[in-house]
Amino acid sequence: MKLALLADVHANLEALTACLDDAQARGAEAFAFLGDLVGYGADPGAVVDLAAAYAERGAIAVRGNHDEAVLDERRGGMNVDAEEAIRWTRTRLGDRHRQFLASLPLVARLGDALFVHGSAARPEEYEYVYDAARAAESLAAAGATYVFSGHVHEPALYYAGGSAWAGAFRPAPGVPVRVPSHRRWLAIPGAVGQPRDGYRAACYAIAELDRALLTFFRVPYDWTAAVAKVRAAGLPPSLARRLENGE
What is residue 161's predicted lDDT score, i.e. its pLDDT? Predict the structure, then answer.
């Protein structure tokens, strides 16, 4: 089974539809949304509606910190531009959008795989997994062979054997990676809607766990349209520049 992994959409409808179209063209049969459907971008309602439609057909979806911030005005810890985008997003969502976001769990499981936005060690704290030490902690807490998460916005792959340490592997787009089950694996597909590694193309991945394969992809999309929407909405200019520069 080909499982498409999509993280950090951040209300970027153009990037999401491009990734979904690419995944379907590659034969994806199942989908998992790894948190942060909203925040930063200009199409929160349309993105939530699309994710909800996939969830109705069986897709996995978990909650991210931006999703939670839209629901809970007391939640802080974001920078000024992110907070402004969250306030704007609240004005653009209806009851059905809020109900869907509120229904999302912090963690989901499918077979020997766990899905979470940040670290599986403390899902409610949305901790970043940005190095091997934090990957090892997340893997140890997960109780699963495969952990799929987001939050970091850059593609990454970590692996662990029988010890407490984890190693890092830098995936190349379009090149399948063997992920055999005698090791444990933590994969971050990168951000669909706001990549931060210097490339504008959207990120996602496809897992084929029955074949022990994982492939990361970069997908060109109409980022000029997404940028124009951010500016037209009056969102912070830095959010448009991020999409322009991929950082």
Answer: 81
